[in-house]
Structure of Pyroglutamyl-peptidase 1 isoform X1:
Amino acid sequence: MIVIGDVLQEFSLSSDGAWDRIVQVLKFYSKFDAITVDDLIYNILVMGSEGPPAITIHVTGFKKFHGVSENPTEIIVRNLKEYLNKRGLPKGLILGSCSILETAGQGALVPLYQTLQSAISSKESGSSNSRRVIWVHFGVNSGATRFAIEHQAVNEATFRCPDEMGWKPQKVPIIPADGGVSRIRETSLPVEDITKSLAKQGYVVMTSDDAGRFVCNYVYYHSLRFAEQSGTKSLFVHVPLFTTIDEETQMRFVASLLEVLASLQ
């Protein structure tokens, strides 16, 4: 049992304004099954009692798929919380869920939407708090030599090979109600600014307008539509294989990306 008064006293927090922050954090984490007292205390302290509400970022990666037996995004997302705990979370950032998705389209829609919905309660949907939620999806481009911040997704599923559930659509609208395969959805995040900030830190990164037509684009399109409906934000990032850019550099890149996102107003 967490006694808030003890937490305040132990960390010498002023009660003025701190109570609102504590309530905010506790309400957010009440939606998740697994959360430690240390995590609660840390996230109460990370923002303090002043400034704008923290940005909560949820991340996803993918499991293996045809031609990629070890997906770097699965390793990145699985190890992200531990990595950030050692490095220290940037001010203004709450790291939410870290989920690994099946590399599949239509057959994995239910768990995908369960993952997206897990961050948004019906009561918070459309509120000012929900606008401080960002979904960041990571996928691998096995032929890439740099990171790519994806600006948009296209309403087209044309899989070059079957997904992990055996589906291989060709020229199929991802969401038929959206119209034809030429429909585009764009992220509301400032992709160019994000890319420039990361490039200044020495990362080999580019802005991309083509997330492909495979599962990455499929998930991004659904996520962008969900973000529009729920008042949240969504971003997709392609990473290379670890043989091209090593794991440690990629972990640093992801941490830097989250820091840039947390600094957005």
